[in-house]
Structure formats: structure tokens, C-alpha cells
Amino acid sequence: MEGSELEPKSLAPPGQHPRHPCPEDQDLIYGYAIPTVPYSSRPPSPPSITIPTPTIAENGGPIKVVPSYANVDPADLSPEQLDIITGGLREQTARDSTGSWNYSERRQAQAILDCLYLGPSNVARDREWLTANGITMLLAVRDSRFASARLMFADAIAQELGIQADYIDIENQMGMIRSLPDAVRKINNHFLDVYHRQAVPAASGGQATEGSMFINRQDFKRGKVLVFCETGNDRSPIVVVAYMMAVLGMNMVRACQFIHYRRFCINLSEEMKFLLQTYEGLLDARRTVNQHRAAAPAIDSSTQRRLRRTADEMDKDDEQDNDTPRPGQAPFAEQDDVDMDGNKDMEMAA
User: Fold this and answer.
1) What are the Tyrosine specific protein phosphatases domain coordinates in residue numbering (predicted)?
2) How far, in Å, CA of 338 to CA of 329, rounded?
3) How many Cβ atoms are within 10 Å of 31's Cβ, its own excluded?
4) Reported pTM
5) Same domain assignment for residues 198 and 291
6) At which of 295, 324, 345 does a domain end?
7) Are 199 and 146 in contact (CB under 8 A)?
8) How many CA atoms lie within 13 A of 124 on its CB side?
9) Structural domain range at position 26
């Protein structure tokens, strides 16, 4: 049936494979169809996350952050616990170290907060440095595939110095999101344990809480944690950024800037930035929900019924919106149709 109308038409010119675009004109698809909207032939990818340099906007001034219970998830910490962990809501400051940074400092550890250090694994082997800086906990961030063979020295050193050692095992980048809350919890629990071991009840009898305990400020020593990985520049900074976001309420960009001021050599890949951005969204959502629950009064049954009816009505509205027809637009159109529409538009405009 040559020439029959039932024969399917090929969009490709003679001699051209129908799956390959016409090389004579890249804007035309097979010479017969053109795109109706801009498009790209590469696979889709999210935009890069830029961490701006603070010195441009702040004229070289320091980055300051003051802990506040308004920025903390009430399900994680109480006001008394936050006061203990932050040393009385003490202000934390970071100054630009770009001009004074030496390449050899990458092998050293830097104090990101007054109680939280970040560095490579060789620092965790330096017994003199650990003792001189009052480190009370070694927190190793390691690849779970090599958990049995690498960074196991921390246990021996911690036992020798009478301090604590713990580990955060990371399977992959997505698994790290599940590990970040556990890392933050381990650091906070260690600070609280160090405080409780040195605190005495203000009143005799019963088990004392944080608010009823007395500390001898002259002899008190706060807990200090060293977070480290092999280089101190990739996995361990992620844990420190997550800790500052969860405890100090800093956003991801500000926390990265703060740590970059303290340890200039950190290297956060785009995947890690997206991971932290995802973690920030989870933190904000969880914090908002728990703060609302803590502040909201008890709801009686009649109010619950009204809220339930309102939710049902909203669901019906959503169903109606889903059933409403929407005008569509094909991604490609035949060139003749586009020319006809264009000529019609020009005639109407004239």
C-alpha cells in the first residue's frame, strides 16, 4: 500500500536515522519539529550551593553567635541542659584566619567552639596535646567499611588517658543524615555527664536535677570533645556543622563560614553541602513542630472535631483541584503548526 494514508510517516529525512537529530540544523528536530520551550540535552542536576565569603559583606569582622533556647528543639534539650552545654549561654566568636593561615596547620586541630575541636587523626594520637587542651572525649568519624581496621587506636589512647572514646560510622552520604542526630546526641550527653560527675546536689536528699545542683567554679572543668577523621577536612567537619546547627541554631551557610574561619582547610563537596541542606530542613521542621506542641494548650474534644472537619474539607478541595482539567503544552510541535500559529498571531496583531 505505497502512498496509503495508513502508512506511518517518518519524521526523519531520507537516509537519516529517526532517533538522531538532523545535523544540518540543531534547532530543528528531524527537520520537522521544533521545541516549544527551552530545554537542555544534559541530565538534570541541582544548582550548586555557594558559601559566600563573609569578609565581603562584613568588612572582615568576626562571626558571633549567642546560644538561645528559642533556636533549640525542646524535645532534645531543656533550658538547663543548654545552659550547661554552652557554659552559661556563652557567646562564640570566629575571626578570619585567611591571612594568618599556614599550610602546616592542617595537621593540627582547631577549637571551633570553646569546647569542641576539629582536626585530623594524627592529633588524636598526640597524648601531650590531648592532655594540655583538656580533651575529655575522642569522637572518630569513620567509614563503616573500615571500622574494624582503622582509627581503633582511639580506644587505647582514651583508656590510657582516662577519657572517653566513641565512633560515628558512615556507610554512605545518604546514611550520614541518619548518623548526624546520633553524633549530636553523643556530644551533648558527654558534656552533661562531665557536668554531673563534678556537680553536687544543692539540697540533701533525693536525686538532684540540673537546676538543683551546685558546681564549684574554681575546680570545675568543662568537657571538651575532639571530632576527627583521617584528614579533618571532609567527614568530621560535617558533624561539627550539624552540631552547630542543632545546638546553636545556625543555618548551614553561617555554620560553614564559622568553621571555615577557624579551620581554613576544610573541604565540603557539593554532595555534602546538599546533605547538610537536607539536614537543615529536617531540623527546622522538627524544631517548629515540637516548639508548637510545647507552647500549644490542651485541645478539648469539640475543638478536635472542628479541626477534623476543617481537614476533611481541605482534602475535598484538594481532590477537586486534582480533577480540574489543566491546559497542557506539548514539548515539541510540528514546524508547519508553529508557522501557522505565528502567522495567525501576526494577522490578529495587524
Assistant:
1) 212-274
2) 13
3) 15
4) 0.73
5) yes
6) 295
7) no
8) 35
9) 11-41
pLDDT at 205 over 70: no
- Cell numbers placing 330: 506539548
Whether 26 and 76 share a structural domain: no
C-alpha cell at position 149: 581496621
What one-letter code names the amino acid at 297? P
Pick from 111, 40, 56, 150: which is nearest to 263 by CA?
111
Residues 179 and 37 in one domain: no
Band of the pLDDT at 19, cuts 50, 70, 90?
very low
* Residue 232 identity (one-letter amino acid): G
Question: Is 222 in contact with 197 (CB distance < 8 Å)?
Answer: no
